[in-house]
Amino acid sequence: MNHLSNNKARGSALTPLIGGIVILLAVLFFLVKLATSGYYSDVEASTPSATQTRIMPAGSVTMGDGTPVGQRTGEQIFNKICIQCHAADGNIPNAPRVTHNNEWAPRIAKGFETLFNNALNGFNAMPAKGGQADLTDDELKRAIAYMANQSGGNLEAPAVGAASGAAASGADASAASSAASDSAGAAAPAAVTASADGKKIFDTTCVACHGATSAIPNSPKITKNDEWAPRIKQGKETLFKHALEGFTGPGGSLMPAKGGNANLTDDEVKAAVTYMVNQSGGKI
Ligand code: HEC
Ligand code: HEC
């Protein structure tokens, strides 16, 4: 008698306990799934948050690993940003590829200061700061040195965590030219804004992937009417949206938001789209 009711009592105490453990496991499972899958699916999809990520303004962009702005190494920056165009097996016209010493030799011969100024302000199809506006001067120098030093160079970049820091280097009088170009960096986009010259934007930012002779796969090339025709059919609002927010084609090719140059205004990007389309059989 006594024995039986004891067992009963134990059984009824165990039931909620087991139930609780099952619920706890289910919650943990979903949390882990959320934490591990969220990032990638967001970036692929054209969700508002993915778009936000692509067009995040300078300052809020981290490397994704939480390294604070100013403390990122040349290798980190290269692997995240410069690699898009400077990869060893890249095919962006004119972009010197890492580890191709012959391509880097004439660049390195210009001297670190010139390379830095050109990377800072933009240079032909090389967007200012590679399109990553929040890079500090020191970080940009590290990324250049990282690439050049993989490619036969021997440039000395500011160490990570150096006391000078990002702000100090901008104000550093020894780099008078670099300080000047710092403010030019801020002024340059404004100057371009005034005109919103589609051809100019195309020639500086879009040509790398949309030039008539660009080797980038799947991007519609300027003056190739047949490549543009199906795109134009989507209507100009869609084209503008895809150019502004970024767009992954059915073949997995990426059109980066604003062509990778976050400094461009919406009007400038639209002007560049209009220019390309109208050179390629369209009329928008
Ligand atoms: C969207 C493509 C693109 C991205 C992203 C990019 N570059 Fe470039 N870069 C180019 C092209 C194209 C050239 C060649 C320009 C020319 O010589 O006409 C170039 C040239 C350069 C040069 C040589 C400049 C000179 O004076 O010869 C340096 C240095 C450089 N890039 C650094 C960087 C760094 C550092 C990053 C990353 C922070 C980066 N680039 C990201 C396209 C890019
Ligand atoms: C790093 C390479 C790259 C750069 C730089 C680039 N694009 Fe693109 N773009 C692409 C690729 C690749 C596609 C095609 C994606 C697909 O459909 O597979 C594309 C597609 C487009 C489309 C068609 C979108 C659609 O809906 O079919 C427009 C419009 C466009 N780009 C505008 C621009 C403009 C404007 C610039 C310069 C401000 C620019 N792109 C710079 C790679 C680039």
UniProtKB/TrEMBL annotation:
Keywords: Electron transport, Heme, Iron, Membrane, Metal-binding, Transmembrane, Transmembrane helix, Transport
Highest taxon listed in the record's lineage: Bacteria
Domain Cytochrome c as annotated: residue spans: 69-151, 193-280
Segments passing through the bilayer: 12-32
Listed Pfam families: Cytochrome_CBB3 (PF13442)
PROSITE patterns: CYTC
Chain segments annotated as coiled-coil in the UniProt record: none
InterPro entries assigned to the protein according to its UniProt record, in alphabetical order: Cyt_c-like_dom, Cyt_c-like_dom_sf, Cyt_CIE
GO terms of molecular function: electron transfer activity; heme binding; iron ion binding
Protein's UniProt name: Cytochrome C
Organism this protein belongs to: Neisseria dentiae
Lineage start: Bacteria, Pseudomonadati, Pseudomonadota, Betaproteobacteria, Neisseriales
